[in-house]
Amino acid sequence: MLRPILKLLSLAALLIAASVCLAARAAEPSPAPAFAVRGSPKYPADFTHFDYFRPDAPKGGAIVLSEPGTFDSLNPFILKGVPADMVAPADNIEPGVTIDTLMVGSQDEPATAYALIAKSITVPEDRSWAEFDIDPRARFHDGTPITAEDVVWTFNTLMTEGHPSWRLRFGDVEKAEVRGPLKVRFSFKSGETFQLPYMVAGLPVLSKAYYGKVKFDETTMEPPLGNGPYKITRIDPGKSITMERVKDYWAKDLPVNRGRFNFDTVRTDFYRDLTIWTEALKAGQYDLKTENSSKDWATAYDTPAVTAGQLVKESIPSEAPQMTQAFGFNLRRPLFQDRRVRLALSYGLDFEWMNRTLFYSTYTRARSYFPNSKLAATGLPTKDELAVLEPYRGKIPDEVFTREYQPPKTDGSGNLRANLATALKLLGEAGWSVKNNQLVDKEGKVFSFEILLADASFERIALPYAQNLKRLGIDAHVRTIDPSQYQHRLEDFDFDMTWAIFAQSMSPGHELRDYFGSASADQRGGLNVMGIKDPVIDKLIEPVIAAPDEASLLTRTHALDRVLQWEAYSIPLWYRADNRVVHWNIFGHPDRFPPYLSSTIDIVFSGWWYDPAKAAAVTMRARGE
Fold it and tell me: Has this prediction a pTM greater than 0.85?
């Protein structure tokens, strides 16, 4: 009797063991050519090209681009110097120009990465690690293969010697390790950081062997060894950079690259004077400019070339969150510690008058840190948002729970007496009073600060604002300095108020720590320009990064946005929901644009090509060749 029972028990044990093995095998993650932070990738594994590219776009020709400012280094990965940014990939894993990333993002879906240097990514269900298999065809420009050692070396070097922003970006990565000649694994400190696989997919890959001979942590004007679609072939220090398309670029026929990178030669000229920058375009010295000045868009291109269709003004719609532009307070200054003071100063900005008088009524007032998107908090908090915010009641402004944030408004006539009266009331509550037409504190010290700019065109915005503040007895003086000096002063936190810009995405992540997190507030060269140090903000950021689905992402982002709005860390300015491009009519481009375009690089390399027939018809150009 015992033997049959033992046989049955043995059989049961075998069945259990088999089912455990099957379950383990079923749960084992599989390599995939794409990864989406939330949901599934739009494009299937066998896709041939992104929908917004024309896969048979003709190759050839040249394009001359431009940038404001200057550069003194071709090393964009360190804090030193003023780098030429086009060398490195963008932070949102858009394509690099000379240096590629492990994977590349699409521009018509949020936070999704597709195979590039890495042919596949493997991620377990708990997202505690991500493993990449490198395409065996991947090569640097000198023909040497890209290996797992290059990837691990790049990560470790950026974390120890790179710009401080890399340590903030990858702070939750525990380690990177070689798992085979073409396999690398990133292990994460916490499985709650939902976006980490996507973030490490955006790692640029540098050559370990090359930097064994070249110092990584020094500025240089020597073109670094790259692996992207272009390589630098000529430099005029501080003035221009010329790149040529790599004819044997190993990834040119990958689905993510079909139809893009079509120009044989790309030259970028740099202009210190913004007026000359615009005039040079009209003179044909370069080919294309994204126009951010509403005044220039409305008035600077009233030329025969535009009338004749030779110089084209093109507005390209965008569904991406627009960059938040604001006057940012340096919260490290005692002058701006009181929220009532910050709120009061916001009443001195007359946006409606500026929009009508200066901007030809083309802008929309920003009221969120995520403008032009459903991520922006509007109306009163929902039940789910209140659940996120309730634990912080008493530690955040009461208005967060009861009022929709709206920046102060005027009738646009230039008469903002009512707003200034509100400002004086708030300043009085904060201990300030007017004596002899000057605003002073209890010790008699005058309220005085500097608005620091790097672009003289912004003076027409800052000067009227400073004039309004003068009516309150505030001495706000505007100072414009050289871009290089400006960058150094920001890195050293040597300013009172300045122009602050925050570039957001449809899937907010690590950049929130950079912009608003306490860890970056005192980090030299960090992106937390305003110096926000608020433990509540820190706690609200992390759930956004860890949001597992769109519904939770919206709820958590709205909660964060509401607190940022009512804390008045900055004075929000404006945005436009399009990209304004002025270009000579020598290009062809696909009929449609992807919805999440955000930069000149995105626009130009999203499938544009040189059209010789059009170029032959443009007789009023002077390329300077």
Answer: no
For the CA atoms of 511, 513, 392, 501, what is the dihedral angle to 10 degrees?
A: -60
Count how many residues are written for the chain. 625
Instruction: Please choose, from the candidates 464, 453, 497, 460, the residue with its C-alpha nearest in 3D space to the C-alpha of residue 349.
Output: 464
Tell me the sheet residues that pair with 477.
450
The mean of the pLDDT values for the chain is 90
- CA dist 506 → 88, 293, 377 (Å): 22, 25, 14
- Edge-to-edge strands of the sheet including 34-36? 34-36, 112-115, 103-105
β strands within 139-246, DSSP E: 173-180, 183-188, 230-236, 240-245
The 3-state DSSP class for residue 160 equals helix
Place of tokens 């709206």: 406
Query: Considering only CA atoms, which of 260, 251, 231, 229 is closest in space to residue 119?
Result: 251
Q: Is the pLDDT of residue 25 over 50?
A: no
CA dist 224 and 143 (Å) reads 14
CA 110/CA 370 separation, integer angstroms: 14
Per-residue pLDDT tens for 253-290? 999 999 999 999 999 999 988 889 999 999 999 999 98
Distance from chain centroid for Cα 446: 38
Which candidate, 494, 498, 468, places its Cα nearest to that of 345? Answer: 468
Position 619 scores a pLDDT of 64
**Torsion angle, CA of 251/257/261/262, rounded to 10 degrees?**
100
The CATH superfamily assigned to 324-575 is: Dipeptide-binding Protein; Domain 3 (3.10.105.10)
Question: How far is Cα 133 from Cα 532, in angstroms, rounded to an integer?
Answer: 39
Smallest CA-to-CA distance from 120 within 136, 134, 140 is with: 134
Q: Report the alpha-carbon distance of residue 51 to residue 56 in Å, rounded.
A: 12
User: Which CATH number is 239-319+577-617's, of 3.40.30.10, 3.40.190.10, 3.40.50.150, 3.40.50.300?
Assistant: 3.40.190.10
Placement of tokens 């300045």 in the chain: 498
What's the pLDDT tens digit per position in 243-253? Answer: 999 999 999 99
Q: Which is nearest to 327 in space by CA: 496, 565, 494?
A: 496
